[in-house]
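Hello,

Our lab assistant flagged a job as stuck in the queue for most of the afternoon. It eventually completed. Since we weren't sure the result was trustworthy after the delay, we are filing this so someone can double-check. Below is the sequence as submitted and the structure that was eventually returned. Let us know if re-running is recommended.
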Amino acid sequence: MRAFNFRKGCLAASFIASLISFFEMNAALGQAPNRPGASPAARPPATAHSRPPAEPPDRLALIRSRGELGICIWPDYFAISYRNPRNSELEGLDIDMARALANRLLVQPRFVETNFAEFMDRLEAGTCDIAMMGVGISAARQQRVAFSKPYMTSAVYAVTTRESNRITRWEDIDTVGTVVAVAGGTLMEPLMRRSLKAAELLVVRPPRTRESELQAGRADVFMSDFAYTRRMVTMHDWARVIEPPDRFGEALYAYAVPRGDAPWLAEVNGFLTVAKTDGTLARAGARHGLSTALVY
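-- returned structure --
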């Protein structure tokens, strides 16, 4: 009986030593041992940092597959992307150019109405593929959208009423008691914030308009570009445009597309290159009175 217990003790000691050795080996390897009936240790889930970056969508292929080009426009932009209230038709330089781009791609144009405060949100959300609405290039906008080659340029002009005694020349704008209106989201908003020292800035957002604020007496003058101020003198006999000194606030205008899609941007630039050489841009500019503002 004593010999039998001795042998059992030796066997038990040997088994324990083997287990200790097994656990030490797994610990050295940084692994937990598998127990009978237990599932293998799960690998840690992949994190966003460990996954390869997602490929941007092939926008050009998407446009062709759905057979339409989504184009962001501001429908109040006279001579650029204007919805004529007389017949509800869209007209303007960028309407002509948008239709020409859609024709090049063999798709239908689909116009998405927006404004300068929201068009970048629309591009980022994929609501439209391109903004063709006289978008001025700025460093702030380049943080969110990519720009094509420029096709137009403009300085900043002032619009007041013919009856105004307060504003009769450019130097009257930045004076104490003067209210200067700009459209929210346009290049004029940051420009006038930097430029005005004495006058008050009024930022106008839809559905209000700069001209309605001017006519109501809540503003003394508003700032806009060459194309929009042509509307004022063409359609409103009460409006008077004041020319800027030294091309004040001059900016280049281009088409805006979502960032990170080099093939789509290259396609848009290719379209512009052809449009500048085959007369498409020149004809559109002449049709809407913007020939002097075009860039080749």
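-- support follow-up --
The delay was a queue issue, not a problem with the job. The result is valid. The radius of gyration is 33 Å. The CA atoms of residues 163 and 238 lie 8 Å apart.
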